[in-house]
Amino acid sequence: MAVEAKAPEIWVGSPPDESALRRFLSYSRRNPQLIAGVGMLFALFLFSALGPLLVDTTTARPLSGPPDTPPSLEYPLGTD
Q: What is the pLDDT of residues 22-77, one digit of tens each?
């Protein structure tokens, strides 16, 4: 009669009972560049979402100056 021993549980990476959020937070703590990148993406999204609420777009007029003028006192760098 042979006795079979139970093989020990071996996992690679994080334990199987750990949640996906906990694994992500653990990974992000080891990678500060990830936090910086996600922060920049969040700021870009926030600025694009809140920008039209903070700026009056009716007064923003493109080409409000005369086109293709050389530098002068009124337009020190000229206009395009």
A: 888 889 999 999 999 999 999 999 999 998 888 887 777 776 778 888 999 988 98
Report residue 16 as tokens: 């199987």
Residue-wise burial string across 23-34, b where 16 or more C-beta atoms lie within 10 A, e elsewhere: eeeeeeeeeeee
Indicate the DSSP class of residue 2.
-
DSSP-based three-state secondary structure for 32? helix
The average pLDDT across 5-33 equals 80
CA 54 to chain centre: 21
Give the start-to-end residue ranges of the domains of the chain: 30-54
* Structure letter (DSSP) for residue 62: T
